Amino acid sequence: MAQAVHLTPERASCRPRAVPPGRSAAQEPVALNPVAPDPVALDNVLELLRPGSFVRLLDQPSDLPPFQLIHCRGGRCWVRQQAWGPFVHWEVPHRRLSRLA
Question: Is 86 helix (H, G, I), strand (E, B) or coil?
Fold first, then answer.
C-alpha cells in the first residue's frame, strides 16, 4: 500500500514527508523553525582543522611549540612535533585541539 505524501505551505521548501495511512498532514507535528540551530547540536560542532596546519592543546603550556596536524578521523586527531621526526605521532581527542590564529 502506497503512503500519501503531503507538502504543507510552511514546509514548501523542505522535502515532502510521508504521512501514515489514516492521518492527515494537519495532524502531523511540524517544527516551528526548522532552520534554528539546536543548542545541544551546537555542543557537537568541531572546529575545522586541516592536515598540515599547526594546532595547540587546550591546556598546552606556553613554552611548548605548536603541534603539526597529520589528520583527523572519527573524533581523534594525530599530531606531531617537528622535532620528533616523521614516524613519531600522538593521538589526541579533536576537542582538545584549537587552531593557531
Answer: coil
Which of 99, 17, 90, 3 shows the shortest CA–CA distance to 58?
A: 99
Total residues belonging to the chain: 101
Q: How far apart (Å, rounded) are the C-alpha atoms in residues 39 and 54?
A: 29
C-alpha cell at position 42: 551546537
Sign of the alpha-carbon torsion through 10, 38, 46, 62: positive
pLDDT digit of tens for each residue in the chain (101 aa)? Answer: 555 544 444 444 455 556 566 666 555 555 555 566 655 555 556 678 889 999 999 999 999 999 999 999 988 999 999 898 888 999 999 999 988 86
Residues 91 and 67 sit within 8 Å (Cβ to Cβ): no
Q: What is the grid cell recorded at 2?
A: 502506497
Asked whether the whole model's pTM tops 0.90, one would answer no
The three three-digit cell numbers of residue 17, written as one number = 514527508
Task: Locate the domains of the chain by residue range.
Answer: 4-36, 54-99
